[in-house]
Amino acid sequence: MPGFPELRPRRLRLTKAIRDLVAETLVSPSQLMMPIFVKEGIKEPEPIPSMPGQYRYPPERVVDVIREALDLGIKSFLLFGVVPDEKKDLRGTYAYDPRGPVPTAIRLIRRELGWEPAIFTDVCICGYTTHGHCGIPVERHGRQLIDNDSTLEVIARIAVTHAEAGADFVAPSGMMDGMVSAIREALDDAGYTEVGIMSYAVKYASGFYGPFREAAGSAPRFGDRRSYQMDPRNAMEAIKEAMLDIEEGADILMVKPALAYLDVIRLVKEAFPQYPLAAYNVSAEYSMVKAAAEKGWIDEKLVTMEIITAIRRAGADIVITYHALDVARWLREGYSPF
């Protein structure tokens, strides 16, 4: 291979038109998935202090938010339910009540917007329980544990309830063993063979979830989630977790968080290139950018676009991000930082 002076890589960087022509990684609104918090018992959008620019929406207002996003080219949405404490119990049973915030919002979306938006729903019990864990606690031999198998029964019922309301995909996030197979069997038995599963296949026990837990009211009331979410020190374990979920019937895989786990995104994509891969650009990753931009320490647009591009470059086909609306607006306005 020739070297300098015959080979001059800078020729491909000389102008923006040339850089755009040979760019390997592109970001489009259609590749972004927008998370939305749907809260029961409120009339107006409720700001989330730890996530500037983000809100909890009453089910009736979710349609307006999605309509705006569709106009900007965002096609897919991930719904999270937020409920008052009096609706919570040990097993999170209100999570599968068809009158809950997520099923209610889905029905409104379908009535007003039809099937244009792709609706994904988070399937977990943490925001619906008095203890805040993703599984049902039990006491065995003098210690408190999270019971895997009894939790599967509950999340399967949640998935069916969301499918009945009109969800395109359900997204189990609790990192329970066998969660994908339990949901696939329940959906198929109920006749929802067309409803897909986007599995939180590779979800780490991360410190980057703090703002989300405040937003969703889902922080654990005792202990932590390290007995079921993955150890941040492990990368190759992600291959095993993704492989198991594929064997159980997952249609889309996910790595969460995204920014601190770009190496894991690459590993999973290279191991399973035939499966769509989502990466969740989580709440603290979002809030850190917002906080630094507010201080004037960074250029928010430039840094945000660099982050989203990095997640795509690592191998993510889908980027789940709270920046979605901002990024789509900037692209619509012709912003191109590189």
TrEMBL record:
Keyword line: Heme biosynthesis, Lyase, Magnesium, Metal-binding, Porphyrin biosynthesis, Zinc
Enzyme Commission (EC) number: 4.2.1.24
Coiled-coil annotated residue ranges, if any: none
GO MF: porphobilinogen synthase activity; zinc ion binding
GO CC entries: cytosol
UniProt pathway annotation: Porphyrin-containing compound metabolism; protoporphyrin-IX biosynthesis; coproporphyrinogen-III from 5-aminolevulinate: step 1/4
GO biological process: protoporphyrinogen IX biosynthetic process
Domain of life: Archaea
Family recorded in the similarity comment: Belongs to the ALAD family.
Identification of the protein by name: Delta-aminolevulinic acid dehydratase
Lineage: Archaea, Thermoproteota, Thermoprotei, Desulfurococcales, Pyrodictiaceae
